[in-house]
Amino acid sequence: MNDNPANAEPQEEEVSLESQPSTPESGSDGSKEAELEAKIKELEDSYLRVHADFENTKKRLEREKFQALEYAYEKIAKDLLPIVDTLEIALKSANEVSGEESELQAKFKEGLELTLDNFSKVLQRHGIEMIACEGEFDPHLHECIMQVPSPSHQEGEIVQVFQKGYRYKERVLRPAMVSIAKSN
């Protein structure tokens, strides 16, 4: 026998039946099982809800990403619209000059027309369209800034356009500012 306790072999302990946990009685066994099944069902439901929330969030983020890419030109288009307005005003002013038109004025007007035409083509190529302003007033596309009596128009019809409106795909970038006819 070895006197060194570090090298000593572990001795087997005898385990009596009294130290073993007692088996549950048959009545409480059924309730414990039902309790565990209820807990499993609760955890499964919780898992399904969390998984559904995750999938919905994933789909929403994918949709938002697609829309962000789809409408990427919207901000720059809004910034370009005042430039188009300024070119149109300059062309209108050049056309209203009275008197004899010099060759320089004619070339200037031609340059403005070409610039405005190119601008319009670029906007159209990128899906930016001018809002039509004929006929009936549409509050989704037009902004009424005044009502005027007009014997040649029916009530609610657009009489005059003060500023053109534009849309990018389905979204209105800027509503058209118009006056509409009112009844006398």
* Residues in β-strands, percent: 15-25%
- State the distance separating the first and last CA atoms: 125 Å
Oligomer: single chain
- What name does CATH use for the topology of the largest domain? Nucleotide Exchange Factor Grpe, Chain A, domain 2
CATH class of the largest domain: Mainly Beta
Number of structural domains = 2
**Number of strand elements:** 6
The CATH architecture of the largest domain is: Roll
The biggest beta sheet is recorded as: 3 strands, antiparallel
H/E topology pattern: HHHEEEEEE
The average pLDDT is: 84
Low-pLDDT runs: 12-26
Radius of gyration: 40 Å
The main sheet orders its strands as 1-4-5
State the secondary-structure class: alpha+beta
Lay out the secondary structure.
Blueprint: H1 26-70, H2 74-95, H3 103-125, E1 128-130, E2 142-149, E3 158-163, E4 166-168, E5 171-174, E6 176-182
Helix pairs in contact: 2-3
Can you tell me about this structure?
Its main location: cytoplasm. Homodimer. GO terms for molecular function: adenyl-nucleotide exchange factor activity; protein homodimerization activity; protein-folding chaperone binding; unfolded protein binding. This protein has 184 residues and is an alpha+beta fold. It folds into two domains: 44 residues; 109 residues, Roll (Nucleotide Exchange Factor Grpe, Chain A, domain 2). It is 49% helix and 17% strand. The protein has a three-stranded antiparallel β-sheet. A three-stranded mixed β-sheet has the order 2-6-3, with no helix packed on it. Helix 2 packs antiparallel against helix 3. The longest helix is centred in the first third of the chain and has 45 residues. It is elongated, with a radius of gyration of 40 Å. The N and C termini lie far apart (125 Å). About 8% of the residues have low confidence.
